[in-house]
Amino acid sequence: MSPDPAIPQEPDLRAIDGWTIHEFAEVTSTNSLAAHLPPWTAVRAVVQTAGRGRTGRHWLSDEEGLWLSAVVPTPGDIAPWSLLPLAAGWAVLSVVRALGLPDARLRWPNDILIGRRKLAGILVDRFSAGAAVVGIGLNVANHPEKTDPELAGEVICLADLLPVTPPFRALIVRLLDALTREHHRLETGDVSGLCRDLNGAWRYRQVQVTLAGGRGAVNGYLDSVDPAGALLVRDAAGEMRVLPAPHVELLREVFPI
Ligand code: BTN
């Protein structure tokens, strides 16, 4: 089968408008490395020895996965930037869908899934007030379940899904373009457009939410995210609960039997 003509083969990374890109064979974590870099810089590594996931989890980062961190400016008022993790999720989802995977979906806040299997995860770090590091881990042709058998059935990679695996550089170009677009949307205050896109991308809406700091749990129906980035969940008593992102430790989807 011939390659998707829409995917450039090995574009020159220097050609990505406005971005400076550094590539490494091995780092601890691209997010940690990017902490010291200026906005509009991106770091890609072939292997991460101490890749970091959300909520302090380890992120297996062997060869053949895409481990990319992009530094974006977050000037001024904090409010729109609190939506950056959600916006980054939409950016990555839109790239994955455009590769020919229209059924790719989001799990709050920003996991990218195919069915019930995770294809990509995002970790946003704010090491300083004026910038954020958006770390993207995309399973391309890697198989983390070979290293950690507990992940069997939980993960999937592009090579399992597409007739031709897109080259890394083409993916980097697309991801940075999409991130630039979503950053612009936040910068210009188009929060309602972002919420509309996001709220069409949650699939399994019956959820169990564990609240942070031992504040209990909310079981119910995921209605939407609001323009402040809070989760709106209708609980079993029919009350709409407004759950600001920092109050949520974990969201589990409840699948229909
Ligand atoms: C998650 O789903 O838990 C988030 C995973 C984020 C992994 C990426 S890989 C590139 C960047 N560097 C890291 O150490 N983590 C992120």
Measured distance between first and last alpha carbons: 38 Å
Q: How are the strands of the biggest sheet laid out side by side? A: 1-2-3-7-6-5-4
Percent of residues in β-strands? 25-35%
Overall shape: globular
Structural classification: alpha+beta
Helices and strands, in order, run as EHEEHEEEEHHHHEEEEE
| Bound ligands, named by name, code or SMILES | biotin
The tally of strands reads 12
Low-confidence stretches: 1-9
Nearest-angstrom radius of gyration?
A: 18 Å
Mean pLDDT score: 92
Compute the number of helices: 6
Helix content: 10-25%
Give a short account of the largest sheet: 7 strands, mixed
Oligomer: single chain
Protein described:
- The protein has 257 residues and is of the alpha+beta class.
- It is built from six helices and twelve strands.
- It has a seven-stranded mixed β-sheet with strand order 1-2-3-7-6-5-4. Strands 11-10-9-8-12 form a five-stranded antiparallel β-sheet.
- Strand 8 and strand 9 form a beta hairpin.
- Helix 2 (84-98) packs across helix 5 (168-187).
- It is globular.
- 37% of the residues are buried.
- The protein binds biotin.
- Biotin (BTN) binds next to helix 1, strand 3, strand 6 and strand 7.
